[in-house]
Amino acid sequence: MAGLDTIDRNIIRLLRLNARISTTKLAAEVGLSPSACLRRIQMLERDGILRGYTALIGQASDASAIAVIINITLERQTEEDLDRFEAAVRQHPEILECYLMTGGADYLLRVEVASAGDFEAIHKGILSRLPGVQRIHSSFAIRNVLATRLAKNR
Predict the structure, then answer these.
(1) Nearest 10 degrees: CA dihedral of 86, 87, 90, 95?
(2) Which of 55, 64, 117, 142 is the most buried (most CB within 10 A)?
(3) What is the structure's pLDDT at 1?
(4) Could you tell me the fold of the domain covering 6-46?
(5) pLDDT tens digits for 38-67?
(6) How far is CA 146 from CA 38, 76, 107, in A?
(7) According to the 3-state scheme, what is the secondary structure of the chain?
(8) Cα dist. 133→75, 85, 137, 149 in Å?
(9) Which CATH class is domain 62-140?
(10) Where along the chain do its domains lie?
């Protein structure tokens, strides 16, 4: 985010914490008038710095959700294989995040489940059927230490 000044960085930081913050409140937090703040937001959107806003969906009881981090290795890494895999991943809302990676695995995925049995169903019904998958390595998180995108409204 080179080229951004302190105000832009503060706007981004505050929107990460609460994308639904009013322009008036955001402006007060960063020391701008509401109209100047709105112009900054629009500029950040136009320049592709702010690419969108999303709702993060939790389970009924986030405390009981088990995060599972999954490393996927594909048989081949051609552009066509990567595109097919990514298109298939987008069809499954159970997969909350997907990252193309460097290193030992091609992709890192995150899902949340209520039990090991729920993960087994995702493993058998979704992960093992994704196109081009050679290896699946899954790790269950013990607890969440930091999740800035999940910060509660202040």
Answers:
(1) -40
(2) 64
(3) 58
(4) Arc Repressor Mutant, subunit A (1.10.10)
(5) 999 999 999 999 988 877 665 545 567 899
(6) 30, 34, 21
(7) CCCCCHHHHHHHHHHHHCCCCCHHHHHHHHCCCHHHHHHHHHHHHHCCCCCCCCCCCCCCCHHHCEEEEEEEEECCCCHHHHHHHHHHHCCCCCEEEEEECCCCCCEEEEEEECCHHHHHHHHHHCHHHCCCEEEEEEEECCCCCCCHHHCCCC
(8) 6, 8, 11, 29
(9) alpha beta
(10) 6-46, 62-140
Structure tokens at 114: 């209520």
Q: What percent of the chain has pLDDT over 70?
A: 88
Provide the phi-psi class of 101: left if phi over 0, else alpha when psi is between -120 and 50, else beta.
beta
Taking the complete model, does pTM exceed 0.90, yes or no? no
Could you give the CA distance from residue 64 to residue 43 in angstroms, rounded to a whole number?
Answer: 40
Q: Which two tokens stand for residue 138?
A: 């899954």
Q: Distance between CA 60 and CA 95 in Å, rounded?
A: 17
Kindly report the length of the chain: 154
Residue 147 has pLDDT above 90, yes or no: no
